[in-house]
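Objective 1b. Sequence-to-structure analysis of ABC transporter permease.
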Amino acid sequence: MIKNYFKIAWRNLLKEREFTVLNLIGLSTGLACTLLIYLWVNDELHVDKYNEKDDRMYQIMANHKSEEGLETIHHTAGPLAASLAAEFPEVENAVTVLPASWFSDKGTVTFNDTHLKTGGQFVGKDYFNVFTCPVVDGDPKSIFRDNQTIGISHALALKLFRSTDNVVGKSIKWEHGEFGGIYNIGLVFEGNPVNAIEHFDVLFNFDLYVAKRPGMKSWSNSDPSTYVILKQGADNDQFNAKIKKFLATKDKNIDITLLAVKFSDKYLHGHFENGVQAGGRITYVRLFSVIALFILIIACINFMNLSTAKASGRMKEVGIKKAIGAMRRSLVVQYLGESVMMAFLALIVAIALVFILLPQFNQITGKNIAFVFDIKMIASALIITLVTGLIAGSYPAFYLSGFNTISVLKGAFKTSVSELWLRKGLVVFQFTISVIFIVSVLVVYRQIQFIQSKNLGYSRDNIIHFEIPMSMDSASLKKSEAFVSQLKELPGVSNVSSYYHDLTGSHGAVSDFQWPGKQPGKNIDFANLEVGYNFIETTGMELIAGRSFSQSDNSRNEIVFNEAAIKSMELKDPIGKTVKFWDQQRQIVGVVKDFNFESLYEKVKPCFFQTYPVMPNIMVKIQAGTETQTIARINQTFADFHKGNVFEYQFLDENYNALYASEQRIGILSQFFAALAILISCLGLFGLAAFTAQRRQKEIGIRKVVGATIQDVAMLLSVDFLKLIVIAMVIAFPLIGWAMNRWLQEFAYHAEIDINVFLVSAISICTLALVTVGYQAIKAAVMDPVKSLKSE
């Protein structure tokens, strides 16, 4: 019996080749899209899930009070980890980590003639008890015996020594500001997996950082991150209640509350509102899961529509089978089997498409996803395909098997009104989703354009930045100042400055400020931007009061604020007034116009500049049109001053665009999936238009005989489908307008949705529909009416 079902199914597929091809393209495209999204979602869900104690691992976050509520940051005080481990019985282990992402640039590792740029991080003694970091060679405790012993990754060991054998005990040179020096290798570790957020090649003892920067001992600093492993059975809610006001017990002047957040949840749930987790990348994971579902549904609808539209050709088959005793259940099984067979044929094509598209997909998403046929992948693909086949074939199976035997054998069967309405409803649903996709793509594109063109309050054009090896001793400072002076003399260089951290969100913070007229109990978190001479001039920031820093020894006693800071402090006529922080008094010499030094998700916050003659990160403004020659001159000057070090530079606008890499990737993926959804919908429309034209052949022939033109016939066949498209737009526009407005509200600065977005979408979808239907309509209209009227 099953063998006969397959034979009949295969014959029907070959008999109706045009509709088979349309169904195969639609289903395979839908399945390929679903498999790609499945791979992406699966990868997203496994980011930072590599730790063995993941279920008990938490990061301590800090909630700072601001004028707009609580602001949650990832950095905490240096002594926090040790105190939590000592004072809370729920804590099994705790570690302080100054992550690689905290540094704005990589350090340089040197062994003999090999020089490599790489990232490092400073970690506390319980690092290996908290994080899963497999050891290749050496003792994990060795790097905490003294400040000059380090661990390096397996990958770095291979690059430096061409082997990992006998690496422990060797020495390398590390160049990174005041942390530069000769270090002994005590450990070789495997390195973080690809699905980890932080990637680094060198592990330093956190005590080294404290020795170089004693401010880490203070409870008021907020540079490192703190991670804890809770004991088995410990309740995180109770732990959070206990640690909430812990900092106030160490320093009564600190008004910061603590919050323990599951470490592996931070990637997908990294957005906080008023001190509470409120989404993040999980929104995109859910969004694309829904997109995959809808695209698959659209493909299934195509199958349903085309199968029921062609049902008239199988009415006699059904009638004869019923007449000789076939049960409805057996017919349902047969037709469901046909659709499942089609789905599995489509799966084969879909897998081929995934292999072809995966390299490009990885490039778009910035991932390294592999299509591996493991048990989970195979099971998921088979289940998705089986469900797709059953859904796609469910309505046709029950529809075909329900034909009345006598009616179909007499040829008296007519299409019911309910069938027509259902078919039209499915078409409306398809194009509602397609319209939603088109509007979404346009809005995301507009926001990306807005981000890229927004005036940030400073110039990011033709500015490169790079790191130089320097420490804070006088000889190194003089060498660095001489290097900056030499750069200024190069042809093509407009200006030169330097800075610490960066202009795209990584910066220090200070809250213990005193200023004239400060109200008791009022604390403001100021972003601390440490810069070299000429920074304001190099970036083109606008001074609205006072002046920039003087280039003299007195500049260390000067300070420049932004507008937001002056407004928050409620200072009148600020120029010349004195403020105090870190037990030092500074005179306000200037106020710059507000500029965006964080992402556009955030409003401009209070910040201040303090200046040094030179900082480790050099910024060079290059004259437009001379970039290639000028960068070559800068490279040569770098080599002259810093022999053996690697010159790596970036353009400032690249750093800014990197802030919105997720949005840009989402925009590209949205375009890709929208195109697929529209393609599948148009395939269905194409098939339905062909069937409609075929069914109305005689009517078309009669109309042409009585004088109808080709345009009249084409319009007759097109207008019914356009009505369905208009209904789809009426449904889609309010829904997607509301949804995209909510998405835009996540940005403090965003584009606006205007009528043009909907007009462009309407014109696009109507044009696509007319082209799709028009081909079949014109084909029917130009047919010889004699042939139409003679056809059976």
